[in-house]
Design brief:
This protein is mainly alpha-helical. The chain has helices at 11-38, 42-46, 60-91.
Length: 95
């Protein structure tokens, strides 16, 4: 590694930027999933019993969509790993 570089006043900005990134990337997605379940719906307040949940799995489109999502996730993961390894190797500084 080379000598340390003087960053001036930029290190003071590192902590707030990291916190904003953490909130946006880590904290907000689960909160967005949980928040609607905490809000009561008007239909739930007016009905005295819980309605029967709809049967969604017998629909062939849903099963097909789940299969496509799984295939896409596996193919992208297996394809990006060697690609990122190759880019890291090519961008490596010669010693």
């Amino acid at each position: 590694m080379g000598p340390a570089k003087d960053l001036g006043g930029w290190p003071d900005l590192g902590v707030p930027v990291t916190l904003v990134f953490f909130v946006r990337a880590v904290a907000l997605p689960p909160l967005m999933l949980v928040w609607p379940s905490l809000l009561p719906s008007a239909a739930a307040l007016t009905s005295s019993r819980c309605p029967t949940p709809p049967r969604s799995f017998p629909q062939p489109n849903l099963i097909h969509s789940a299969e496509n999502s799984l295939i896409t996730a596996v193919v992208c993961g297996r394809g990006l790993t060697p690609l990122s390894t190759m880019v890291a190797y090519l961008c490596e500084d010669p010693v």
